[in-house]
């Protein structure tokens, strides 16, 4: 799990001023916290976190020597200048279920013998912090045309500690036969 150093946000500075000082405004809420806490992190750490983690990823925050286990609930990037603007973290508490999302990635999609159609990219679920997953990679090598893959076919989603928030028979992907083009009529 990634460990990111954060500090209490300087409330005297507006978010734009923080960003000019190479800091990114953030907040952490939930868990044992009685109210949301405004924090800030170094831009370099924020950029790395944005590139390597997704919504639902677990992250350990080092807040003034106190370790807070969290998940990323939201991350924002300015589309014009590509700068990270904000992170929202949800504090996790052992023994308390939390809602999250797992991202589905496909490996070896280039060797599929038919037309690949991915129908589901994120899977909402709830679990205890120790059972959370943030990504599931499906290896498509050897899957024949005609394959229909549902959530119930993916072992990671069969774990007894994970409660899916969508039906288990939801289709994740299908591989269809490639259609043959007919030759033009030469009549």
TrEMBL record:
The keyword Zinc does not apply. Residues 4-89 form the Large ribosomal subunit protein bL25 L25 domain. Residues 114-177 form the Large ribosomal subunit protein bL25 beta domain. Keywords: Ribonucleoprotein, Ribosomal protein. GO terms for cellular component: ribosome. The keyword Ribonucleoprotein applies. InterPro entries: Rbsml_bL25/Gln-tRNA_synth_N, Ribosomal_bL25/Gln-tRNA_synth, Ribosomal_bL25_b-dom, Ribosomal_bL25_C, Ribosomal_L25_dom. This is 50S ribosomal protein L25/general stress protein Ctc.
């Amino acid at each position: 799990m990634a460990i990111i150093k954060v500090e209490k946000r300087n409330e005297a500075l507006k978010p734009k001023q923080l960003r000019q000082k190479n800091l990114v405004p953030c907040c952490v809420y939930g868990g044992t916290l009685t109210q949301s806490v405004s924090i800030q992190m170094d831009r370099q750490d924020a950029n790395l976190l944005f590139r390597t983690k997704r919504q639902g990823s677990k992250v350990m925050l080092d807040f003034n020597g106190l370790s807070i286990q969290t998940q990323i609930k939201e991350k924002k990037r300015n589309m014009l200048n590509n700068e990270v603007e904000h992170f929202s973290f949800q504090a996790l508490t052992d023994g308390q279920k939390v809602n999250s999302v797992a991202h589905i990635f496909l490996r070896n999609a280039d060797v599929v013998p038919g037309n690949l159609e991915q129908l589901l990219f994120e899977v909402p679920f709830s679990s205890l912090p120790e059972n959370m997953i943030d990504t599931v990679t499906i290896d498509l090598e050897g899957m024949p045309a005609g394959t229909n893959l549902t959530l119930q076919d993916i072992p990671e989603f069969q774990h007894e500690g994970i409660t899916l928030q969508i039906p288990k028979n939801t289709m994740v992907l299908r591989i269809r036969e490639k259609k043959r083009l007919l030759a033009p009529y030469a009549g």
